[in-house]
Design a protein that fits this description.
CATH class of the largest domain: Alpha Beta
Structural class: alpha/beta
Length: about 375
């Protein structure tokens, strides 16, 4: 992203002077004659440094900077003024709305250029600190998850073992009606799935988990993943389109890649809620030195502001929209599916990319080196 500075002043002569002062600099310079115009530029161009006049017609400089800050935009704010309104400026500085102030008229335009250069350096430090804080918060969330999983995994597995034991005993009865036997078999499947979920969460919270890899077919793995999802998708009336390629071998952990594919397929199915017809397309193939699985839907799409967050643990836009009765409804809204998938992708030296537009659908592609 280019280094962009926004200057705001209701005096066109001042703006022209600033434009000339920065004519030979490498910065992208934006000029606005009012706070309202400047707010539109903040939303559109996300400048890293903003310098505003204090006293302007309509919205003053401090009010503008406060409103710009409410947009959650990480920028360095400065005020220039010809007035010695020190109390209000220092109050703004103490509240971190303003980094520093510059008096005008300045004697040498190089002073202004130097102030902006220093502001960009401060922005780099501020952005690094912000990133470190986000990483710390992520680590804390993962630690909390690990503690939670450690506390419930043992008890949950005991419950699963008890359920499976009683189901297996019931299945020993030879005169059991066929319908009841089929239902008990489904109980076994879902109970084992519950055990797998606990194991997946434990793997997610323990980055040192030992994962085994072997040479296998990505296409075969995706086909098996689809078989786990097909029944619930058929019930939901979702049209499934497939295009599977041969010779898509890679060094994979079969169970983890199957779970990754299931996550992508179920997310795509969920995204089509409210659409008619509902369509999910699943492809595998080879490109350059990689193999890939691509899952495309015609669903609701993802707003641009969420695209950088969708792989974060606990981030979800689902919640109450999970289809009742589906295997996914029990865990929908947890916000771990894509985060788990990203962890799996990285463990395979691969990546997940996404293309999406609101109301037009999404396309998730997982690629990894071929064997």
């Amino acid at each position: 992203m280019p280094q962009t500075v926004l200057f705001v002043d209701d005096n066109p002569v001042i703006l022209k002077t600033i434009e000339l002062a920065f004519a030979g600099e490498e910065y992208s310079v934006l000029l606005a004659g009012s706070g309202e115009e400047a707010l539109r530029l903040v939303k559109k161009d996300s400048p890293q440094v903003i310098v505003s006049d204090l006293r302007m017609t309509g919205m003053n400089g401090l009010e503008f900077l406060h409103r710009a800050r409410q947009k959650n935009h990480l920028f360095v704010g400065m005020i220039f003024t010809a007035y010695l309104d020190i109390d209000s400026i220092m109050k703004a500085v103490s509240e971190e709305a303003v980094w520093r102030y510059i008096t005008k008229p300045w004697q040498d335009s190089r002073e202004l250029v130097m102030a902006v250069r220093n502001a960009f350096q401060y922005h780099e430090a501020m952005a690094a600190r912000h990133q470190a804080q986000e990483q710390l918060q992520r680590a804390e969330r993962l630690t909390a998850l690990g503690q939670l999983v450690a506390g419930i995994a043992h008890q949950f597995n005991n419950i699963d073992a008890g359920i499976l034991g009683y189901v297996q005993m019931a299945l020993l009865h030879k005169e059991l009606p066929t319908e009841v036997r089929e239902q008990l078999e489904q109980v076994k499947v879902f109970t084992k799935r519950g055990t797998e979920i606990v194991r997946e969460l434990t793997t997610f919270s323990d980055q040192s988990a030992k994962w085994g890899f072997s040479n296998g077919s990505l296409t075969d793995t995706v086909i098996e993943a689809l078989s786990f999802c097909r029944k619930e998708m058929d019930i939901a009336g979702i049209k499934i389109e497939t295009e599977f390629a041969e010779n898509c071998n890679a060094s994979i952990n079969f169970g983890l890649i199957k779970q990754l594919a299931m996550n992508l397929i179920r997310n795509a199915a969920h995204a089509t809620l409210g659409k008619e017809p509902r369509t999910v397309r699943i492809e595998t193939g080879r490109q350059d030195e990689n193999v890939f699985v691509r899952v495309t839907d015609n669903g609701c799409g993802i707003p641009p502001k969420y695209l950088t967050k969708i792989f974060d643990p606990f981030f979800t836009t689902k919640g109450a929209q999970a289809e009742q009765g589906s295997a996914q409804s029990a865990v929908s809204g947890v916000g771990l599916g894509l985060s788990l998938s990203q962890t799996v992708a990285q463990a395979h030296r691969g990546e997940i990319t996404v293309q999406s537009a609101p109301e037009k659908g999404s396309c998730f592609t997982f690629s990894l080196p071929m064997a």
